[in-house]
Specification:
Blueprint lengths: L17 H18 L5 H27 L3 E6 L2 E6 L35 E2 L2 E5 L9 E5 L2 E5 L8
Antiparallel strand pairs: 1-2, 1-4, 3-5, 5-6
Length: 157
Amino acid sequence: MNDTLCLRHHPRQQGFTLVELILVLVLLGVLTAIVLPRFTQTGFAAYGYTEELASAIRFAQQSAVAANQPITLVFTTGGYRICRGSLCPSDGDFLINPGSGQPWDGSRSGRGQIPAGVTLSPAANLTFDGLGVPSQGLLLQIDDYSLRIEAGTGHVH
């Protein structure tokens, strides 16, 4: 028999090595510890509400400048309301949300109401004058997130 024609067939091993398995388990553990808490329902709702509130504050300031009249935001534990004028009674002249066409009266989701399980503090009022200058600086806390409204400029960050 010719040696060149005789090929030995070595079975190929299939599977993962122990090092590969340990590396995958460590990576999954790190991802679970870091990423999973950020996608919990409450954390996601708090982040979304923070972004909604920042947009609403900026829109209120722009509306005050555009109309050259005061716009007032009232922050409560249940959410926020936005009214025309320097007072914001519960049945006031509410600013209309341009996205939904509904008044920002704090009555429902997308209208200022805070999602279940999320907290907003402190309860306060903020009025933008006709030049867009806020009545005060304010730091709002929404669970682990915060919004700062600068006193002189009304800048939201």
